[in-house]
Amino acid sequence: MSTLLWIIIPYLAIATFVLGHVWRYRYDKFGWTTRSSQLYESRLLRLGSPLFHFGILLVIGGHVFGILVPESATRAIGISETAYHAVAVALGSVSGVMTVAGLAILIYRRRVTGPVFSATTRNDKAMYVLLAATLVAGLATTVLGNLLGHPYDYRLGVAPYFRSVFYAHPDTGLIASAPAGFQIHVMLAWVLFAAWPFTRLVHVFSAPVGYLTRPYIVYRSRGGTSLGRPARRGWEPVRRPGS
Q1: Prediction pTM value
Q2: Would you report the helix, strand and coil content of the chain in percent, each value rounded to 5?
Q3: Percent of the chain beyond pLDDT 90?
Q4: Segments making up each domain of the chain, as ranges
Q5: pLDDT in tens, 139-153
Q6: Do residues 58 and 101 make contact, with C-beta atoms less than 8 angstroms apart?
Q7: HSE (CB half, 13 Å, CA atoms) of 169?
Q8: Which CATH class is domain 2-212?
Q9: What is the full DSSP assignment across the chain?
Q10: What DSSP character marks residue 242?
Q11: Torsion, Cα of 87, 84, 161, 101 (10° steps)
Q12: What does the pLDDT read at residue 60?
């Protein structure tokens, strides 16, 4: 069971994440979109979207740093474990609350706004459930552990496990000894990575690079001229003889 949960499923998730995005880009470019619903409702979107997106950027940045940078590296540059833990808990809690609050607003908006709810697919609903479960599990392990006075140092267990997976030498003992809350959070994260390419989350890897080199769009009026501007030769409508 340990091999299935912490070796087979993680590598299947990584392979699905990479190959799924390649397949999606090659065969479903028109579906590579967030299916924006801003035209249907914007008041709640203006509140929930910045909270979620800025919060999730901080969450991802904290996870990447915490997993890839070992404790020995921060200690070598003069950052004590106490100071690192205090900053990590503070930033993690704030960014986690921001992300969960923003996601809650977006889910509420999607449920109570008729046109937005009608445009929500089953795939979207499953994605929201999985994403919310992963975020809540991660926030709960951080906040509850510190409130109860039994914080778990993930840099000694969970982070080395992830690095061992990336190094192709997975150490299941590291994650097996972690608290159940962290195990649930990690497993939900692997499932989320596997489902990622087949949801609207693919827009994370989109960037409007083409806008830098595309030609200008020329807008012309259908008839008449602008007030205060003289008509220019060559732009008069063409009339057929006898019309």
Answers
A1: 0.83
A2: 70, 0, 30
A3: 62
A4: 2-212
A5: 998 888 777 767 788
A6: no
A7: 2
A8: mainly alpha
A9: -HHIIIIIHHHHHHHHHHHHHHHHHHH-GGG-S----TTT--HHHHHHHHHHHHHHHHHHHHHHHHHHS-HHHHHHTT--HHHHHHHHHHHHHHHHHHHHHHHHHHHHHHHHSHHHHHT--HHHHHHHHHHHHHHHHHHHHHHHHHHTT----GGGTHHHHHHHHHTT---HHHHHTS-HHHHHHHHHHHHHHHHGGGSGGGGGG---GGGGTSPPPP---SSS--TTS---TT-SPP--TT-
A10: T
A11: 0
A12: 95
Cβ atoms of 61 and 111 within 8 Å: the answer is no
Give me 188's structure tokens: 């939900």
Long-range contacts of the stretch 22-29 (C-beta < 8 A, 24+): 23/197, 24/197, 24/198, 24/202
Amino acid occupying residue 44? L
